[in-house]
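[09:14] KT: can someone run the structure on this one? pasting the chain below
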Amino acid sequence: MAVVEPSLVLERRLLREHAHLIALDEVGRGALAGPVAVGATVVDAAAARRRVPQGLRDSKLVPEKRRPEVAARAGSWAPASAVGWATSAEIDEIGIMRALGLAASRAITAACGQDWDASAALVLLDGNHDYVSAVHPAPLTVRSIIKADRDCASVAAASVLAKVARDALMVELSGEFPDYQWERNKGYASLEHRDAIRRGGLTRHHRASWAIADAPTLF
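[09:31] RB: done, structure tokens below
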């Protein structure tokens, strides 16, 4: 099956009606350990007229060794970008969906800063559920799009930025807890990760509220 290359067709059409767009995508929703991350890219008409960054795809389709360079190009292409986080403790306290909203809200605030008005933007959110509006402190106009990370270059850029940032954090955390091999599994339910949990229990970075013992092994 041919890989679908993301384009700016939808963004260019939507920018006829909106001053700018804020594209969002999450990484780490299904992990057993570590935070959830949401990438945000701000795109205006000038950015949408430029070419899609070379090699840009949904982060799952970009080889791991190439992701940092693709993320760097995506970050240079977008007028503004950021990654927002919600910790494993926050996930335990408020649940994964509200934690996603919290991370998304933080990403929007960081990306917009003083230069971009989030209330004047259309927020493009990968998926079929708006998890950010109920959490963000100001009103937002959100459009959820299934497979946006595959089809929309702005969302694919957010996806790669979040993936690279979260993977780097998990590699850093693995130095403190090497038995769990987070440098390889990034906190997801690999066989080695599950074995380490059985031997050593949960760390402070695990999502203790989850039924981790029952989680399926992914790889």
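[09:33] KT: thanks! The chain has one domain: 9-171.
[09:34] RB: yep, looked fine to me
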